[in-house]
């Protein structure tokens, strides 16, 4: 495996450096500093800029370093307790400035009228006065470098050791020449030198830019290496499916696949045909048609008489998938469902059928990983929302697989830049385009005092026999006066449409009550559902064409988008109304973004811009590395370049043998 912080081959140990004996060596060991590589990559924790600046550009209370001519004889005053004040007037950048040193009486002799001096301290713009901390003697100027050394030694001492490494050692590794040119980067040696021995802020910035790129470049190469290892080559992993049969099946579909669906299906089929285990993520918004793509893969497996397992995190999702697959295949595939609520008798029957190979596709929850679930020949595993499964759970299912092909599905649009880090070791297929005929949900933003208008619009939808979701963010009494709580909103709708038409479901209800309420809504017994965000978790009522989200500013873009995904599930035009009196610019921006696009990927990119990527990393907390300079939360643009470069580089390496 490529190592990131290894640029000197056979690095000498720390004790080879002057002045480092066994005692110091042990202390450095505690800081994980063992050898020359560790030394040069132990970067400064901060800099104190002691290079001279232009005082006319300084603001009040800035820490400044300036040079000027001494205009008056220094005046020294002593106070009680041995305290002292030394005052001198200097001309600095054309200004007449009072400079005061506290408790450094010995400086009096160094300050001579007509001479010049360099000082650093805090600038009081109003009084044109500098509270000087130090008089700088050394002519070199530049920066004071600070290191975190846990009190083991002084930063200056460590600097000497670093300098010795630069003197003694040859830096064997560097970024490829063409990359350095393309991105105007320094060599690694140069960059590290500038960071340890900086001359000016520009050098530090350029050096940081170089090391950042270097870290992300190596990180990408490491990920690619990991991918290679993951995709084990084995003739056994080839699924030599019947291409003709698959084509014929596609021809029988009631619709034409979108080009994104075709491309994704092709990518998956290519994986199947190869002697490499598939490790692919299929990403697509709710309703983009992932199910049919996954279905095609399982059909391909069926053509060689083998089996597919689809594992989902919840019973609700299992039911939904089961329904959709039954519709798609209409008897051409033997499909079964296995969950925690499957009866014992049925379970026995399913287990038997799986062992005998009579079931082509099994859809289920964690129940699938149990030991008594045995396959005749499992060759494809599909998991939905895989981040909700533990590594062990996935592994246990994978252990039952004969041909190690895994397809992950997710309906959470993740910005491309982030998928690179979070799913960097997977291949990714993306479905962006929605099926033809799908009408984007028309989204509006209304103020609270326009609620009547919203109720009128809902009345019109109900006339057409459609149903509606009303989302209220809280069940508790409102925190602030204008925050409508769910009870209040329920009241609003029952007043207008009558109790017989409005259902209430919220997080505080008993599960039986909740599901009874949901059922009345799903069966259209009650066409209006007022609820907290509980409906976020998989519910499918294609007849629902209207959604109102109260206090929409309380939700992030991705939640709003997930909520909106509950409507627009048929060929009928759907509507989403955000009711909100936003208080902040950010909240306003979110309302504007929501009304301007229904594209989940575009939203997620915008979300990334607004919030930064912190939240997305929860999606997959696999050991993201700690970098010295790079920060995944900020440097995702650099990451993109580093990734492209790494791909090119690896391809070139392969071509060169
Ligand atoms: P997802 O799983 O991505 O949320 P689905 O696969 O459930 O989406 O598809 C949503 C609906 O769109 C389904 O009713 C499906 O039959 C239909 N559908 C899928 N692909 C197409 C297509 N290319 N043209 C028209 N309808 C499609
Ligand atoms: Mg394969």
From TrEMBL:
GO molecular function: 3'-5' DNA helicase activity; ATP binding; ATP hydrolysis activity; DNA binding
CDD domains per UniProt: DEXHc_RecG, RecG_wedge_OBF
Pfam family, one: RecG_dom3_C
Domain called Helicase ATP-binding: residue spans: 271-431
Domain Helicase C-terminal, first and last residues per copy: 454-609
EC number: 5.6.2.4
Family: Belongs to the helicase family. RecG subfamily.
Protein role: Plays a critical role in recombination and DNA repair. Helps process Holliday junction intermediates to mature products by catalyzing branch migration. Has replication fork regression activity, unwinds stalled or blocked replication forks to make a HJ that can be resolved. Has a DNA unwinding activity characteristic of a DNA helicase with 3'-5' polarity.
Name the UniProt record assigns to this protein: ATP-dependent DNA helicase RecG
Primary gene name: recG
């Amino acid at each position: 495996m490529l190592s990131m912080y290894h640029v000197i081959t056979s690095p000498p140990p720390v004790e080879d450096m002057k002045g480092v004996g066994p005692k110091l060596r042990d202390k450095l060991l505690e800081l994980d500093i063992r050898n020359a590589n560790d030394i040069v990559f132990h970067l400064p924790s901060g800099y104190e800029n002691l290079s001279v600046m232009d005082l006319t550009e300084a603001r009040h209370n800035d820490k400044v370093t300036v040079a000027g001519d001494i205009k008056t004889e220094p005046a020294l005053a002593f106070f009680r307790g041995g305290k002292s004040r030394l005052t001198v007037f200097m001309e600095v950048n054309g200004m007449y400035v009072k400079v005061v040193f506290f408790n450094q009486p010995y400086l009096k002799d160094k300050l001579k009228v007509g001479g010049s001096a360099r000082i650093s301290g805090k600038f009081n713009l109003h009084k044109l006065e500098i509270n000087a901390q130090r008089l700088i003697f050394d002519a070199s100027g530049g920066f004071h470098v600070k290191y975190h050394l846990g009190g083991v030694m002084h930063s200056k001492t460590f600097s000497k050791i670093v300098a010795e490494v630069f003197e003694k050692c040859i830096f064997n590794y560097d970024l490829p020449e063409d990359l350095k040119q393309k991105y105007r980067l320094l060599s690694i040696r140069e960059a590290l030198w500038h960071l340890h021995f900086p001359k000016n802020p520009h050098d530090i910035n350029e050096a940081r830019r170089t090391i950042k790129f270097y870290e992300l470049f190596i990180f990408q190469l490491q990920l690619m290496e990991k991918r290679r290892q993951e995709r084990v080559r084995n003739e056994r992993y080839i699924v030599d499916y019947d291409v003709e049969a698959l084509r014929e099946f596609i021809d029988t579909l009631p619709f034409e696949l979108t080009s994104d669906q075709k491309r994704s299906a092709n990518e998956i089929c290519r994986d199947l045909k190869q002697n490499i285990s598939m490790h692919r993520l299929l990403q697509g918004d709710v309703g983009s048609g992932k199910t049919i793509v996954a279905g095609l893969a399982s059909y391909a497996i069926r053509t060689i008489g083998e089996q597919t397992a689809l594992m989902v995190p919840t019973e609700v999702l299992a039911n939904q998938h089961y329904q959709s697959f039954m519709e798609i295949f209409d008897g051409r595939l033997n499909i079964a469902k296995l969950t925690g609520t499957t009866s014992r008798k049925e379970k026995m029957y399913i287990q038997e059928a799986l062992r005998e190979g009579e079931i082509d596709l099994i859809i289920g929850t964690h129940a699938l990983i149990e030991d008594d679930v045995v396959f005749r020949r499992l060759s494809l595993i599909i998991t939905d929302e895989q981040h909700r499964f533990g590594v062990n759970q996935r592994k246990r299912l994978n252990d039952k697989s004969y041909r190690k092909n895994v397809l992950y599905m997710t309906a959470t649009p993740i910005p491309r830049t982030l998928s690179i880090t979070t799913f960097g070791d997977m291949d990714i297929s993306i479905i962006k385009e929605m099926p033809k005929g799908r009408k984007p949900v028309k989204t509006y933003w209304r103020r609270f005092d326009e609620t009547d208008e919203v109720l009128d619009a809902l009345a019109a939808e109900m006339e057409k026999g459609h149903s509606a979701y009303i989302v209220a963010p809280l069940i508790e009494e409102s925190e602030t006066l204008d925050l409508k709580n769910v009870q209040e909103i329920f009241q609003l709708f029952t007043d207008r449409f009558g109790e017989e038409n409005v259902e209430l479901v919220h997080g505080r209800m008993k599960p039986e009550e909740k599901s009874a309420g949901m059922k009345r809504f799903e069966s259209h017994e009650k066409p209006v559902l007022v609820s907290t965000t509980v409906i976020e978790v998989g519910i499918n009522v294609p007849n629902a064409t209207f959604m109102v989200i109260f206090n929409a500013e309380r939700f992030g873009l991705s939640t709003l988008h997930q909520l909106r995904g509950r409507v627009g599930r048929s060929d009928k035009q759907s509507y989403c109304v955000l009711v909100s009196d936003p208080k902040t610019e950010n909240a306003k921006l979110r309302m504007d973004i929501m009304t301007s696009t229904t594209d989940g990927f575009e939203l997620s990119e915008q979300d990334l811009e607004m919030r930064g990527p912190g939240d997305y990393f929860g999606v997959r907390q696999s050991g993201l590395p700690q970098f010295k300079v790079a920060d995944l939360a900020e440097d995702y643009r650099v990451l993109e370049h580093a990734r492209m470069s790494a791909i090119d580089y690896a391809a070139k390496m392969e071509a060169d043998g």
